[in-house]
Write a structure and sequence with these properties.
Strands 3, 4, 5, 6 and 7 form a 5-stranded antiparallel β-sheet that branches. A two-stranded antiparallel ribbon has the order 1-8. The chain has a two-stranded parallel ribbon with strand order 2-9. It is α+β, with helices and mostly antiparallel strands. Helix 4 (about 215-250) packs across helix 10 and helix 7 crosses helix 10. The longest helix has about 35 residues, at about 215-250. It is built from 10 helices and 9 strands.
């Protein structure tokens, strides 16, 4: 599968909206000067200009808004979780995590590749250690599931045989008491088994108690129901917002300034390179290794195509912000930022902004515009007349 390239600027708002917002026109017509941000080490960055910040444009001249109030939209999906979906998901999820069912064979001597049913007890200095014992354990010889020497030590053993394996745990073993320790495993080979392809999986309370945090199948299915409802609600919100954006793109006329498009592409490539290329690695090297040898020219062309559609959306939302006089609520914005930081694993706002901009300052400016334009999209979605379970081609205009 081809990797998705356009992941930087929109990634921070994916959980909120499929849209984003570009830079508003500057009232005084002045271009933004070079920034003087500090990086996460507290050292001053090079004075890097965010190219898109230097482009001045009048959004009212770029966008001719259509009638975005009360748009009629239909989506084929009903976004309802059915009993059948719950049953299917519950069973398939349990089966995917279930241990194989084995049946006995008449084979008597262990060979590499066999699955053996064993009892074993591990001792260190003559005393059994925690986690070193089990009964009726099915081990495939050659799976490297146990420490070196354990599986190979069973090759040639016969069913019913008990043998001692004198082994040493690796020095880097995570349990410090056992790291580098000499131990003895006493192993009894009960039988040699094979997976039973005809065994039917049974979802019962015993399986649930042994493999999940639930106690009964009923509780487990209630958990599945809740999970599916949450996922469906997220799908519904995402699809609804995207449908509204698609309708806006059809009903509004947008002209993206060439210099804005070129500047945004340049910014994106700068950010993409900063976030993905390690020290000394060029963009060409990264693309060659991670994108099946894609050239920089092809990369830029792909970015430009995606950025054009993105900017069309941005400019439409900017125009709605301007027409409706939507302002940024600072407290709500800070909650938005904290949500995004949590979703993407950032502890400091500066690091979050730095990852989404040529500089931390430009990243913050962009995120503020993202937030305001998402609020504009919220309003359009709330005002839209949306029908679910109806094919889009029947959508009224």
């Amino acid at each position: 599968m081809k990797k998705k390239i356009f992941i930087i600027l929109l990634a921070a708002v994916m959980t909120v909206s499929a849209g984003a917002c570009g830079k508003e026109k500057q009232e005084d017509g002045a271009q933004q000067t070079q920034t003087d941000d500090k990086n996460t080490d507290g050292k001053k960055e090079d004075n890097v200009q965010a190219e898109a910040d230097s482009v001045s444009y009048d959004v009212s001249k770029c966008v001719k808004l259509g009638n975005y109030s009360g748009m009629k939209i239909s989506l084929a999906n009903t976004y309802k979780v059915t009993k059948e979906q719950i049953e299917d998901y519950a069973l398939n999820a349990a089966k995917a995590n279930a241990q194989p069912v084995y049946k006995d064979t008449k084979k008597k001597k262990v060979e590499k590749g066999d699955t053996v049913n064993i009892d074993y007890e591990g001792k260190k200095d003559g005393a059994a250690f925690v986690g070193g014992s089990a009964q009726g354990y099915n081990l495939t010889i050659g799976s490297n599931s146990f420490i070196d020497g354990f599986e190979d030590g069973l090759i040639g053993a016969k069913t019913g045989q008990t043998l001692d394996l004198n082994l040493t745990f690796p020095e880097n073993y995570p349990t410090t008491d056992l790291a580098g320790a000499d131990v003895v495993f006493t192993v009894t080979v009960n039988k040699i088994v094979v997976e039973d392809p005809d065994a039917e999986f049974e979802l019962n309370d015993e399986y649930i108690q042994n493999n999940t945090s639930y106690k009964t199948v009923k509780e487990y299915k209630e958990g599945v129901k809740s999970y599916l409802q949450n996922q469906t609600a997220e799908d519904k919100e995402r699809d609804t917002r995207q449908a509204v954006i698609d309708k806006l793109l059809k009903t509004c006329e947008v002209t993206v300034p060439d210099d804005l498009l070129e500047a945004r592409v340049a910014d994106h490539i700068t950010i993409f390179t900063k976030n993905n290329c390690e020290d000394g690695q060029t963009l060409s090297d990264f693309l060659s290794a991670s994108y099946n040898g894609m050239s920089e020219d092809d990369f830029r062309s792909t970015i430009k195509d995606e950025m054009l559609v993105n900017l069309q959306t941005e400019l439409i939302l900017e125009a709605i912000v301007e027409k409706e006089g939507i302002k940024l609520d600072e407290d709500a914005y800070q909650e938005f930022v904290e949500q995004q930081m949590g979703s993407y694993g950032f502890e400091k706002a500066e690091d979050f902004y730095q990852s989404n901009g040529v500089t931390a300052k430009s990243g913050e400016a962009y995120e503020r515009k993202v937030y305001v334009c998402n609020r504009a999209l919220d309003n359009v979605v709330a005002d839209a007349k949306i029908t679910y379970g109806v094919a889009p081609e029947k959508d009224e205009k």
